[in-house]
């Protein structure tokens, strides 16, 4: 689910910390000149610069000047259609990932850019809101492992939170699958088909986000950059294992959704067969009745029982008797 703690769409969130202290503050987009102070990071501290919504161009290029961001990276950050990837530059690592969470029952797929430097991490989001509230709490808390490590470990925690968001999204999707299965078993409807298609699209979005991130996490856990220290790589390999679990769970969920579609079609076919069976039984019962009515509806003068006093009532009695006998026969054959 979407975290309740959000930064303003008109400000930049700054967090910096070391073992002994931490602090949070914000800078307004309207004052890019104030951003030049961000490069002055106290010795031994790690700084996290988080832009939670689409970054204005003047702010982005000001940050590019402050942190010497490569021009290609500055061009790529506003592009929300990039594939998940990792690129190494002379003094920085550029990471692109997809952050996924539910907001107001809608699946949000947010494009994220991360830039790792020697003692800082820059994160650029696409929309307001993120899944990083636990990381903020860990930065504020004393004695956490995050406070005792460098910027590469901060990048790991951000990436790990994104992967945890995949699990949360999958859990929400699977809960919807279970509820939808109960609805289908009670009675199939066209709306359920729309829900199934919607869940399929959500799982497809999740698959597109997770698969490329697996390769990125694998590369980071091996030999991606000297900015990623050896003591951080085991944690990144753990993220890789979690991504593989997400992929396996996603595949299982897609199979369950395919099974839902089969159940829906089976229920629809069963309902249609039941309707056709009832109509066939009714038609079969009326066939001899129609025959009798047709015979005695002919305009011939010389017909047996034509002028019989009780002929009308006798015909009705015969028709009712035939109907009852046919119903008894169908019942014994268990046709209904």
Features:
Beta Polymerase, domain 2, 336 residues, Methane Monooxygenase Hydroxylase, Chain G, domain 1, rod-shaped, disordered N terminus, seven-stranded mixed sheet
The CATH homologous superfamily of the largest domain is named CorA soluble domain-like
CATH class of the largest domain: Alpha Beta
**What is the level-2 CATH architecture name of the largest domain?**
2-Layer Sandwich
Give the number of DSSP strands.
7
The main β sheet shows up as: 7 strands, mixed
Shape: rod-shaped
Strand content: 15-25%
Remind me, CATH topology of the largest domain? Beta Polymerase, domain 2
Mean pLDDT, rounded to whole units? 85
SSE class: alpha+beta
Radius of gyration: 35 Å
Domains, number: 2
What is the CA–CA distance across the termini? 49 Å
Nutshell version of this structure?
This protein is an alpha+beta fold and 336 residues long. It has 7 helices and 7 strands, in the order E-E-E-H-H-E-E-E-E-H-H-H-H-H.
What does this structure look like?
The structure is a single chain. The protein is an alpha+beta fold and 336 residues long. The chain has 2 domains: 11-266, Beta Polymerase, domain 2, CATH 3.30.460.20; 278-332, Methane Monooxygenase Hydroxylase, Chain G, domain 1, CATH 1.20.58. It has 7 helices and 7 strands. It has helices spanning 57-67, 71-76, 133-140, 151-186, 190-220, 233-295, 311-332; strands at 11-17, 22-28, 46-51, 85-88, 93-103, 106-116, 120-124. The chain has a 7-stranded mixed beta sheet. Strand 1 (11-17) and strand 2 form a beta hairpin. The protein is rod-shaped.
